[in-house]
DNA sequence: GAGCACTGC
């Protein structure tokens, strides 16, 4: 920002909204500098409210720091107003037009969640008195509500990462704000490292990192001593209660606590944190039953509401309904009781919660690079997470949090939840980074470097898939694969599918695998649901069953009763259709042909299965006849077909989409393949000379025999010639 | 014969 540029600026919004000026202005004759229209009636009202937010007290301090530094860290807790106000402060202070007026820049603000990006941008558009999608917009997958006029864009962190793939220096932006940085999503962590590089090459770009108060020093250390600003939050005090003894059964303890609160505490709604759908539905039933058995005791009415992500949005809306009124006038007050997963910890805020019950557990993703398995495990939460949960009780008035563990246990918790990058398979992330031009992934500047074994696994898998060559360089194939918003295995099967003459079908399968399970199985109609599913079943595998469902959906999607009668989830299928369209557009852009084998040909399904194997050859399991179980090839894990499978027998060879670790080790979504295909399609992976020796594996014996037979045939055919 | 924390492209 040179002084040259500064002088050219005609009106600064900052001057307009200055208190002294607005105080004098009673009418709305002032022109909104962003769109040249007079301000509407509501503008000044909203402005007055904005000024009461804590972050406004530090506006000048912030703008001064922004002017003097390239990188800035801002920490502030819930209620500080940083997400809505800081981007507007930035807009007022920076010059968005290049000196020669040939270029216009934007301010970008990332959010970890789509919903947040959407709702915050709507709010800010209203505050700035402009139409959403014009000067203020948002960009999330499937929805770009921005235009050439846009100067402030909210977008998901993943979306900014995608943008970087075509705009490596992020040249459309003047300032980038990474919000909710403490959540340490995979995308935010990658953006950290990437932006550090970009800032070196673009002295005119500025970065603001916004986070909750946690680990501020760590952020500062990583961003080489960038100045740190603190903004106070706005929370009411919350009293914390611990149990004297550890609880053996946290579900039972949680239910007991709910009952106690309702019987003895003043009015106020209750929020209970549990770990998953089944547990939550179970708890809801038990709580409702408890209050139904109170006999003649005077108990206020309760509304028990489950909350988890796979619940339809209409059901999720129920958490915003008020508590029920007393049954009789002057009788005991009613209470709303929300039983939720972690979704209520960060993603959804429920006002009116006064009591929080925290058993101290959550399902968390874990990755074991040794056996290449990602799994969800119920594990103790971190201190930061426990504090976030208790804070949910103090949003509207002072509250209480009941921790169902001892104070000693609390002190033993990890201070922070480990960042996602330490708990994930990084194959996909590494493909993205390669595409972004990062040559040396091993020395990439991660805030928390992933385990070396995870790193090696990712490089190895990309090499087997042909996305990286032996020197670790991105191949042409890898470049094409990286264009798809899919895991590399899936991207690979899609990219090679035209060679197998079935890209139309692989597109559909990919879309179906990318959305939540489409089969509905209500507790009261499990048998009927299973029968309905069986009607779509294909004996050669679950992937083909998914294809059947998709085809049936395309034929029946006008008929609302079809979904109901067949126990399929309308939302999941609609979303699959959406994904499929996006993937098809990418295929077209890359000149990958959309082709199908004739449906009546005996090769129709064979081609599809072969194409899928070309992506998933690293996820093959073999039926060990003498042992009576499946063994994953190479990793040698004893696994079981997930009971949801639709095969009518136990095929000798299968490939699987997912390894699920629950009560046992399951492989879910499996399709039957033939050993000859394995040898034909992935000889480089099934290179038996370099196989880890596993004496017991029948799979290796079978493959070895097959290879020997091939050698013999080759020699014989040669000698015949 | 079992389950689906939460995000995101």
TrEMBL record:
Key words, A-Z? ATP-binding, Helicase, Hydrolase, mRNA processing, mRNA splicing, Nucleotide-binding, Spliceosome
GO MF assignments: ATP binding; hydrolase activity; RNA binding; RNA helicase activity
The answer on whether this UniProt entry bears the keyword Membrane reads no
Checking Pfam families in the record gives: DEAD, HA2_C, Helicase_C, OB_NTP_bind, WHD_HA2
Q: Which residues form a coiled coil?
A: none
What is the protein's species of origin?
Artemisia annua
Q: What is this protein called?
A: RNA helicase
Q: What is its EC number?
A: 3.6.4.13
Q: What class of enzyme is it?
A: hydrolase
Q: Which reaction does it catalyse?
A: ATP + H2O = ADP + phosphate + H(+)
Q: Name one GO cellular component term.
A: spliceosomal complex
Which CDD domains does the record match to this protein?
DEXHc_DHX15, SF2_C_RHA
Q: Which PANTHER family did the record assign? A: ATP-DEPENDENT RNA HELICASE, ATP-DEPENDENT RNA HELICASE DHX15 HOMOLOG
Q: Does the keyword Cell membrane apply?
A: no
All copies of domain Helicase C-terminal, residue ranges? 257-437
